Amino acid sequence: MLRFLLRRSLGAVAILLIISAVTFFLFYAIPRNPALLACGKSCTPEQLAIVERNLGIDDPVPVQYWDYMTGIFAGREFPAGDCPAPCLGYSFTNSTPVLDTILDRLPTTVSLAAGGAVVFLTVGLSLGMLAAWRRGTLLDKTMSSTSLVLSSAQIYFIGPLALALFVHGDGFQLFEQPEYVPITEDPGGWFAGLLLPWLVLATIFTANYTRMARAELIEQLQEDHVRTARAKGMSRSTVFFRHAWRGSLIPIVTIFGIDLGSLFGGAMVTEVTFTLPGLGRLAVDSVTESNLPMLMGVMLFAALMIVLFNILVDACYALIDPRVRLA
Q1: Does residue 88 sit in the same domain as residue 188?
Q2: Confidence band (pLDDT; 50, 70, 90) for 324?
Q3: Which residues sit opposite 81 in a β-bridge?
Q4: Measured between alpha carbons, how far is 298 from 216 in angstroms, rounded to an integer?
Q5: How far apart are CA 42 and CA 290, in angstroms?
Q6: Strand pairing partners for 78?
Q7: Are residues 122 and 228 in the same domain?
Q8: Cross-strand partners of 96
Q9: HSE, side-chain direction, 13 A CA sphere, residue 180
Q10: For residues 277 and 180, is the Cβ–Cβ distance under 8 A?
């Protein structure tokens, strides 16, 4: 296991280096003048000069990239202020290091992602198990059809509709206006403010995991080791939960690792729909403001989350399925 984690960690470092190089090239090499893009249409020559110094684009692109990467480990100094390690750049828009802003927005995204994941895993897997258990019945067909319809829906449609019906509806207000309240300050307010975003975010994922869990369980029930357990006289519930269910978790955990990494990187549409100050909203605002350092920092942080969760998913394989051995 230790060798596996070491090997995957080295591979993750290589992947992140490639992502950082490609991202940096797209933001700072392809545009003719990144400073002019970031400064905006009404930029004066004095403002442009300040932005150029803040972005550090006076040097060749390879030198800029080297300075950016060394700043992650050693920190950097910008004309607008110091950026201690780990430095993901300095935002000239709000005059703060990029990482400070990311860490300030991170609790909102963590709360949204964790709560949504609990909802769609609990509901989705339970419904998928029930559909597989009652395969071929009216219940199975109804749940499969419903999950197919919901998986085709989009958050930017469900979110405003939920706000109109359950928050702003006359005489039908079931939820409070969504907002983020730190859980350390008010746990009740934290839960109430994120409940509706959790449910909306989990809707599409729940439908996908219902279909996935059902399909994987039905496939596992046809495996040789499951048929052997059934032939030995084990009860239907024992065969279903002890053998088929455990084997079906591997592809589900794989997809969950990718989904959770993406959620931690920023559930953009959900955060924008409910005006939650998370990483997704930060990325959208950075695009609107042409805040290149902030946008690149959010992208690299999201890539880091996805890579880390994929490593954890691979490490979980051996715990889920005894047939898997990680050398």
Answers
A1: no
A2: low
A3: 78
A4: 34
A5: 13
A6: 81
A7: yes
A8: 91
A9: 22
A10: yes
CA–CA separation, 157 and 160 (whole Å): 6
CB 148 within 8 A of CB 211: yes
Contact yes or no for 243/229 (Cβ under 8 A)? yes
pLDDT confidence band for 180 (50 / 70 / 90): very high
Q: Could you list the residue range(s) of the whole structural domain that residue 41 is in?
A: 2-96
Which residue is it, tokens 């930029």? 43
Average pLDDT over residues 38-65: 74
Question: 86 and 106 in one domain?
Answer: no
| Separation between Cα atoms, residue 220 and residue 238, nearest integer Å | 14
pLDDT digits (tens, 9 = 90+) for 64-98: 888 889 989 898 887 777 888 888 888 877 778 89
Which of 112, 36, 143, 91 lies closest to 283, judged by CA? Answer: 91
Three-state SS sequence of 191-240: HHHHHHHHHHHHHHHHHHHHHHHHHHHHHHCCCHHHHHHHHCCCCHHHHH
Q: Is the dihedral of CA 268, 270, 271, 273 positive or negative?
A: positive
Against a cut of 0.85, is the pTM above it? no
Question: Among 96, 117, 134, where does a domain finish?
Answer: 96
Classified as helix, coil or strand, 181 is coil
Residue with tokens 């279909």: 211
The first and second tokens of residue 277, run together, are: 């100050």
Cis status, amide bond into 79, omega within 30 of 0: no
- The answer to whether 57 touches 293, Cβ cutoff 8 Å, is no
What is the average per-residue pLDDT within 183-202?
91
Q: In which residue are the tokens 């978790």 written?
A: 249
d(CA 327, CA 314): 12
Look up residue 184 and give its amino acid.
T
Domain stops at, among 96, 115, 146 = 96
Contact 175, 165 (CB under 8 A): no
What's the CA gap between 324 and 314, in Å, rounded? Answer: 10
Q: Which two tokens stand for residue 32?
A: 């003719």
